[in-house]
Amino acid sequence: MFGLFKSAKPHTLTIEGVGEFTVNPKETILTAALRQGVRFPYSCKVGGCATCKCKLQDGQVKELTSAAFILSSEDIEQKYILGCQSQLKSDVTVFVDGLSDGTSVANVQEGEITAIEKLTADMVCVTVTLPEETTYVPGQYALFSTPAVPSGSRSYSFATPPQGNHVRFFIREVPGGEMSGWANHHAVVGDKVTVDGPYGDFYLRQDAGEKRGGEMLMIAGGSGIAPVLAILEDAMNHKIDRDVTFLFGARTEKDLCALEDISRISRNWSGRFRFIPVLSEEPEDSSWDGRRGLVTDVIPELTDITQTYMCGPPPMLDAAESCLKELGMSNNGIYCDRFTDRSHTK
Question: What does the UniProt keyword field contain (predicted)?
Answer without folding.
Answer: Dioxygenase, Oxidoreductase
